[in-house]
Amino acid sequence: MDLPDRAICELDSIADAGPFGPAIALLRGEALKSQERYDEALIPLKQAATTIPSPLNKRAWRSLSECYRHTGREELAEVADLVINAEEPEAEGNVTIHFAVVPLPLVNEALKLLFGGRKLSEEPEEPNEAAEGQSAGE
């Protein structure tokens, strides 16, 4: 059906790709790869792999790795595989929030237990020095 040929012809007809340039490069590279034109496919695939943001660029890196293997560049294929398999670091400052719906009487009871039966506005009781002296002497 000559789909890769038709795809390349259509992609070549685009005068100004604008922000779709990286996606077009990916499609062109994959069409060339499917025609077994691996050396030619490397150029648009490199462009796609380096301009499409991660993790969306993994498809480009995978095709790039395959083209490197077919052209006998095993070391470069391994590097591309490392990029594909790299874990995305979690962004700093991520916060997980857990919440529960608890009936108000249970919340009040839990607060009373937590604060020893005193109200939130009350200051904690100071230990009685006389009682401490007796405990220490006993």
Structure, explained:
This protein is mainly α and about 140 residues long. It has 2 domains: about 80 residues, Alpha Horseshoe (Serine Threonine Protein Phosphatase 5, Tetratricopeptide repeat); about 35 residues, no CATH class. About 60% of the residues lie in helices and about 0% in strands. It has 7 helices and no strands. The model has no long low-confidence stretch (mean pLDDT about 80).
Order of helices and strands: HHHHHHH
In CATH, the topology of the largest domain is named Serine Threonine Protein Phosphatase 5, Tetratricopeptide repeat
| Global morphology | elongated
CATH superfamily of the largest domain: Tetratricopeptide repeat domain
Summarize the structure.
Helix content is 60%, strand content 0%. It is an all-alpha fold. The chain folds into two domains: 3-85, Tetratricopeptide repeat domain (Serine Threonine Protein Phosphatase 5, Tetratricopeptide repeat, Alpha Horseshoe); 104-137, no CATH class.
Topology, please?
Layout: H1 3-12, H2 21-34, H3 38-51, H4 58-70, H5 74-85, H6 104-114, H7 129-137
Helix pairs in contact: 1-2, 2-3, 2-4, 3-4, 4-5
List keywords for this structure.
mainly alpha, 2 domains, 138 residues, 60% helix, Serine Threonine Protein Phosphatase 5, Tetratricopeptide repeat
